[in-house]
Amino acid sequence: MNRQVRSDIRSLMMHKLIAEKLKTNPQLWLIPQKNIEKWLEAGVCEIIYREWKNIFLNSSKDKIIEIITSDSENSKRLRSSSPFTGILNIIERNKFFSRLT
């Protein structure tokens, strides 16, 4: 299995964990929205974060969950610039990565 495939699988697995947290704690939805705004203001990867902003403005939470947990090529592309940084805490991230080794 090549590096990109492994990376895509790891990202999908992580976003499935993120999706579970979002389902159980609606306040966490503020984190990606704040990340998007912060990164757009800083001029970081404007095209993709404008796309994410549009997704958040025009999609239900269920649709966003579907996007981040899908194995589609579009979802893989969107996950590669994920605004969901900060949903998993350091303990959850470490546990996740330790299971991969």
Detailed description of the structure:
73% of the residues lie in helices and 0% in strands. It has helices at residues 3-24, 30-41, 46-58, 61-69, 73-79, 90-100. Helix 2 (30-41) runs antiparallel to helix 3. The longest helix is centred in the N-terminal third of the chain and has 22 residues, at 3-24. It is globular, with a radius of gyration of 13 Å.
Give short descriptive properties of this protein.
101 residues; mainly alpha; globular
C-alpha Rg (nearest Å)? 13 Å
Measured as a percent range, the helix fraction is over 70%
Q: Based on the structure, what is the oligomeric state of the protein chains?
A: single chain
When the domains are counted, the total is 1
Separation of the first and last Cα atoms: 15 Å
- Major sheet description: none
Low-confidence stretches: none
Order of helices and strands: HHHHHH
| General shape | globular
Strand content: under 5%
Tally of individual helices: 6
| Helix/strand/pairing category | mainly alpha
Strand elements, count: 0
Query: Mean pLDDT, as a whole number?
Result: 95
Concise synopsis of the structure shown:
This protein is mainly α. The protein is built from six helices and no strands.
What layout of secondary structure does this protein have?
Elements: H1 3-24, H2 30-41, H3 46-58, H4 61-69, H5 73-79, H6 90-100
Helix pairs in contact: 2-3
